[in-house]
Structure formats: C-alpha cells, structure tokens
C-alpha cells in the first residue's frame, strides 16, 4: 500500500474519522457500495466519492463487480484489499507448535504443525517457531507482514508481551517474546494467553462480535478466556481467567505452580494421569485398559477411553468435570455469560465430561444467570487458535491503532505503540 496522502499522523480530524470509518465498513462487509456508505454514514454523495477515492489511492479499497440495479445504473461494489498484507500467527502449547499465515480478512492461507516441549525454553523454542514461519512465507505471496500474534500456555502481561510466572514454561518468566519477532519481521507483535486466542476463534466461528462468552480449556492444565461484549477481558495484569490455580476446598494436592490444592492439581489432565497411574499401581483399576498396551497414559487417552466406556477413565473424567463445573459456576454467577465453550483434551470425552459440568453449573449458579445459558463442546478444530490470533491482530490493527498508522499505509512497531 502506498503512503502518498495529505493525511498525516497527528490529530484525528473529521476527514480522517470518516475515512477510517468507511474503510472499516467495507472491510467488515457492512457496506459494499458508495450509496450504502452514504446511507449508513449520513455523508453527502460528493464527500463519499472523495473519501472512497482517497481510500483507493491509499490502497485500502478497490473496485469490485457491479451490484444489483434498483432501476438506474448498477452501482460498482467496493472491496477491502485483504491480499495486500499478511498476518503471522504462532500458537504455542505445552507439547506443540502451530504456525499459520492469514490474509487481512483473517483467512488462513497456510499452516504447519510440529510436536515440541515448550519447557525447552524461549530461545530454542522461538528459533524453531521462526524457522517454521520462514518456511510458510516461502510458500505464500510475497507481501508485507502487517502483524504477528503469539499465543502461549500461561499468563501474559499484554502490554509488555512477556509471560508472567507461567507454571509449565520454565525460563519464560519476563522473557521479551515480542522483541525477536519485531526485529525479524519488522511488524507489530502481540503476545497473549492461548485460551484468549481460542475464545476469539470461537467468536469468529459464531460471527458474534458482541458475545458474552467463556472458553474453558481443560487439557494438561486449565484456563479460561473471557469475552465481554466481544472483547477479551484480561484484567489489570493479564491474569483474568486463570482458574486453574483457584483453591479447591479440602484439597492438599501439590500443584506445578508450587501451591497446594489448585484446581489444576485436582482436575487437570496431568492430575488425571497421576491418579490413573496411582490406581493402576495400587491394583484398584478394575477392568480398565488404561496403560495395558505399554504406552504412556495421556490426558487425551483418558478422555478417549472414557468415551469408549472404560470404568476407571469414566470415574476420573466425571470427578474432573464435577470440580471444574463448580469453578465455572462461580464464573457464571460473577460474569453472567451467554455461552460456555468447553475445549481441550478433556473435551474429547464428549457428553461424559459435559453432562457433569452442566449439572454442577446449573445446581450451583443463580437461576437468572443460567436462564439463557448454553454450555457446549468446542468444535475441536485445530485451526481455532490460528483464527483467533488473526482476529486479535485485526482488532488491534483496525479498531485500536488504525488512526495512528493508516496514513503511512502499513503498520510498524513504532506506529502502533503508545509511548
């Protein structure tokens, strides 16, 4: 995109405001023609023509096909030029790396995945991530990178882009994740908790920009992403939704975070693996097939075994679901969401897990808070965190920082950072 424009970074004039609005209206599909822009914005025909011409000259918009005629000449449609830039999304988990490339409409163009232990530390992990990114970039159109999003499985200070005391990420506390990506790709970078990306991915799938939604991920660990009117609620320091380390009454189980009785230490996937191994070692597993094939027991394996009717797996899954349901009920009373989505490895147990969660939530929550509440399983789409990362980047680029960089035609780390 070209930066040739009389509009410059600085005070946001009425002209700038209307131009920004027009670009975003076309980008989101709310309008597709010049007459529609006039009706929605209230701007006169001449002003609309001038603003659209500016947006086309700057490279944000382009002419599309002719629309339907209402009796006169058919209007020419407008389109947002999503092909002019790309977004890089990196979704890091405890045991995997998933990287994707999206266009400026959030469409995933290409992706790759590999198993990886995030406990190997930030330097080695980010080197592998960037190698995967560069391989993808060689396979897609050579256009500028507009943004990079990195999701990590732990609490994040969103303003600094650094993990904060993540229990399963030794060596990552306070690490500058943003810096290496900014230097490599010369683009703004946002780092967030992986569950927040999943919540945004669910919003994109539902196309509900005003969603009040909780995404609860129950895998090896436990976390929740909170959407309030479609926006992520991170809290003052990025710790909102970290329900995995809420104290469970009566529990003395040691948690990986160093505390005692955390929800994750009672009901998380790694806790279920621990309990399954103990039951088998003590000979109380009954007719369970867990561990009988000589393979290591995993959270995913327990969930699948429960769905297949394994008695020990069912007992473990139902115990986990009851305790998690109690914690979610507290969130329901405080947050009053319209939808709760359960994802992660435990969701593979299907209704065995979900039925127990539902029962506890409805038993312990206020009637008004559950009157219109829907509790559902995630679609378990591996691309969800990538779509969510694209949603995060687009929101930051076009809703939060657009006025600060649009005259330059291309976002940069400097132009989206407020000093």
UniProtKB/TrEMBL annotation:
A Pfam family assignment: ROK
Domain of life per record: Bacteria
Family statement: Belongs to the ROK (NagC/XylR) family.
Protein name as it appears in the record: ROK family protein
Organism: Arthrobacter ramosus
Taxon lineage: Bacteria, Bacillati, Actinomycetota, Actinomycetes, Micrococcales
